[in-house]
Amino acid sequence: ASTAARPSVVPEKDLESFQAHLSKSTRIIALLGAGVSASSGLPTFRGAGGLWRTHAAQQLATPEAFARDPGLVWQFYNYRRHMALNVKPNPAHYALAELARKKEGFITLSQNVDGLSPRAGHPASSLKLLHGSLFDVKCSDFFCKYTEVDNYTDPIVPALAIPTTSDGDEIDPTTNSARQARDLDISDENVDLPELDLAHLPHCPTCKTGLLRPGVVWFGEALPVNVMDDIEEWIEKSKTIDLIMVIGTSARVYPAAAYVDQAREKGARVAVINMDKNDIPASGVYKRDWFFEGDAAKIVPELFK
Ligand code: BV8
Ligand code: ZN
């Protein structure tokens, strides 16, 4: 159905039963994905126009890619930092932050690295960033522990300034066309991608030799141990879990997606909020109790009313 026909207002009957359950729930999890930030203007990963589709992004979000071409990986992440800094949290981010302030037993597990939940005022104590943040940087030298949080410098170093075409449009440096313009040396007059000299990339102020890297979890890397421990402790402490809301995520990435079944094992009812009712991933969210179809930015504030 065309999006025009899609109800972004939830069917009454579901809304009442959901709100009745929410009001008597004391242990609640919200699992967030890129769909929560979509209407702020940030591209999702797998949907139409998603990051992983037009870019070699899935290949870029790995330690191997960084070892092979740190300049390109930094262009990708500097561009995403730039995009995230130029958009604003939306009503879904604010509604979740408000619920976190009101409900003591509420915790948000976010796969998003865009910094929009913290910017919406979500209390840090109940916001667990499963995949790190675009605005944390750390030393890539295994033995050096240097880490920096809340680094909003844009561009992070001058060499990573976002290239623009001759008529001033910003070029996403990792799209195939931009890559070709550089790799195949197509002297496309309006795509001028600077070769990146390693010396111009961010270096560690402590060990001096290590390259700094984005403080995100790449594919093949473990999620932050302290974050995982906090969540396990929260789940252990819950005699039962009343509700898990799975918002704007294709629930395909593990171990993040595994929290849905973990919550269900402790009695949780499952509410899915997603633009696309066909994006029913294998992660078991298909056994859901509520499904609200539409834009999270419109639906989430209504659910919490
Ligand atoms: C690990 C940070 C081991 C970087 C990310 C085969 C089977 C199972 C697992 C694996 C496998 N092969 C490999 C694995 C493991 C792998 C994995 O799960 N791969 C997947 C692809 C199969 N996992 C890992 O590698 C993890 N690490 O396993 O380590 C280990 C253990 C111990 C010691 C050493 C090693 C690490 C995973 C983390 C990777 N990092 N991000 C970066 O962002 O650049 S993942 C990336 O995907 C983002 O974090 C993103 O958040 C996440 C999930 O994507 P979504 O958020 O769900 O976004 P998506 O576009 O997919 O979906 C958007 C949804 O929103 C859609 O459903 C859409 O319909 C909906 N939507 C769109 N608009 C709206 C909307 N909904 C509502 N409103 C809207 N407006
Ligand atoms: Zn270092």
TrEMBL record:
<dbReference type="GO" id="GO:0070403">
    <property type="term" value="F:NAD+ binding"/>
</dbReference>
<dbReference type="GO" id="GO:0017136">
    <property type="term" value="F:histone deacetylase activity, NAD-dependent"/>
</dbReference>
<keyword id="KW-0862">Zinc</keyword>
<feature type="domain" description="Deacetylase sirtuin-type">
    <location>
        <begin position="8"/>
        <end position="305"/>
    </location>
</feature>
<keyword id="KW-0479">Metal-binding</keyword>
<dbReference type="GO" id="GO:0036054">
    <property type="term" value="F:protein-malonyllysine demalonylase activity"/>
</dbReference>
<dbReference type="InterPro" id="IPR050134">
    <property type="entry name" value="NAD-dep_sirtuin_deacylases"/>
</dbReference>
<dbReference type="GO" id="GO:0046872">
    <property type="term" value="F:metal ion binding"/>
</dbReference>
<dbReference type="InterPro" id="IPR003000">
    <property type="entry name" value="Sirtuin"/>
</dbReference>
<comment type="similarity">
    <text>Belongs to the sirtuin family. Class I subfamily.</text>
</comment>
<dbReference type="GO" id="GO:0036055">
    <property type="term" value="F:protein-succinyllysine desuccinylase activity"/>
</dbReference>
<dbReference type="InterPro" id="IPR026590">
    <property type="entry name" value="Ssirtuin_cat_dom"/>
</dbReference>
<dbReference type="InterPro" id="IPR029035">
    <property type="entry name" value="DHS-like_NAD/FAD-binding_dom"/>
</dbReference>
<feature type="binding site">
    <location>
        <position position="207"/>
    </location>
    <ligand>
        <name>Zn(2+)</name>
    </ligand>
</feature>
<feature type="binding site">
    <location>
        <position position="139"/>
    </location>
    <ligand>
        <name>Zn(2+)</name>
    </ligand>
</feature>
<keyword id="KW-0520">NAD</keyword>
<feature type="active site" description="Proton acceptor">
    <location>
        <position position="131"/>
    </location>
</feature>
<feature type="binding site">
    <location>
        <position position="144"/>
    </location>
    <ligand>
        <name>Zn(2+)</name>
    </ligand>
</feature>
<feature type="binding site">
    <location>
        <position position="204"/>
    </location>
    <ligand>
        <name>Zn(2+)</name>
    </ligand>
</feature>
<dbReference type="GO" id="GO:0005634">
    <property type="term" value="C:nucleus"/>
</dbReference>
<dbReference type="InterPro" id="IPR026591">
    <property type="entry name" value="Sirtuin_cat_small_dom_sf"/>
</dbReference>
<keyword id="KW-0808">Transferase</keyword>
<protein>
    <submittedName>
        <fullName>DHS-like NAD/FAD-binding domain-containing protein</fullName>
    </submittedName>
</protein>
<dbReference type="Pfam" id="PF02146">
    <property type="entry name" value="SIR2"/>
</dbReference>
<dbReference type="InterPro" id="IPR027546">
    <property type="entry name" value="Sirtuin_class_III"/>
</dbReference>
